[in-house]
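Example record

One chain of 414 residues, shown exactly as stored in the release files.
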Amino acid sequence: MSPYTPQMNNILLRELEGSIRFFLDHTNLDPHSPGFGLTIDSTKNPALASIASTGFALTAWVIAAERGILAQQQAQDITRGTLDTLLHHASHHRGFFSHFLHMDSAQRWGKCECSTIDTALCLNGVITAAAYFQDTAIRDLAAELLERVDWRFIVFEENGQAFFHMAYNPDADGDYVHGAPGFISRWDMAAEQKMMYLQAASRLDPNLARRLYAGFRRDIGYFNGHSIIVNPGGTLFAYHFSEAWLDTARWLDPDGIDWFGNTRLACLANRQFCLEHAAEYKTYHARSWGLSAGDSPFGYEVAGAEPCLVPPYHTGTVSIYSALSCLPFIPEETLAMMDYLITEHPQTWGKYGFFDSYNLAVDPPWYSQALYGIDKGCSMLMIENHLTRLVWDTYTASAPIQTAFKVLGFNPHP
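Predicted structure tokens for this chain:
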């Protein structure tokens, strides 16, 4: 059966609408709460908000308004209230938000780090909302949030190159602190952080902004004779998070890199890796593939596939949301997997569409009953982009991103 059928189009729409319902049901929409607009990290802990999930939620309100799932005014009210929470209540250090927050108070969860990438994911939602809604208050709040981020604070230089730190934690016993408190690790590899260089471009000296973008490694792996710029562990989400908002199909980077084509090859390689290990893991075959980060029978895991820099870790768990996020890049393979799951494994489907993952290589077979905001959000954006390009067009045409393109030297794809 061809994956392009009215039934499959209906499944796509149901998955998209279910994703928006997920954000409506798992976002703090109490107008009297300091945490208004914050979205949960996962259904496993409804008290724990994720600043990154909140960025995906802000984009969900844009999709919901465009599709008439929410009234325009309601979507604007939720967006405006969320931006007010982020500006006036959510814990941050120099504009970099705490990775996790209490849903009700918007205060830092435990001793979690101030995360650059999770802040950037949130700000992608801020940029998208400000570009879409014709609302002066939303645009003013968004501008304040973007201007507050002190990008220079997390920049460091080494051997003539410029890098971003990954995170900051002031506590000696804080999350990810090994030794002295302060800055944590570095973005020196190709991964999910490309959005950070775009967001910082207009806030830094242009020469420094360009040096930062040039600073991360472009490690090369190979698939079927084609070169791929890989992330160290070959995890699928790292190819998707920036590209969920950024229109890499129509823009080339300053060095002429086609990031859309790179992601397409990475999706195909991830699928092929699963096929090559199908004899070892029952979950893997031509219509069931996708190795990434998310729920597993063994807890939260980060899986990956070749090509990569280190031996890839995987346990037979297929990340459904990461496979769905491949839709704009390899649509026929992705739709075929969706059809297979609906037909053969209805346990993977629930109130909000597909659950996070499943694993048939364990006994008994395991089906996730959890949802993660960043996972559901990424596949939601990619489905919308596949259908209408709404998020790509809105975000990429925004003033901050167009300014970044000029500073960094991005060019239209010929």
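Notes: The chain has one domain: 6-412.
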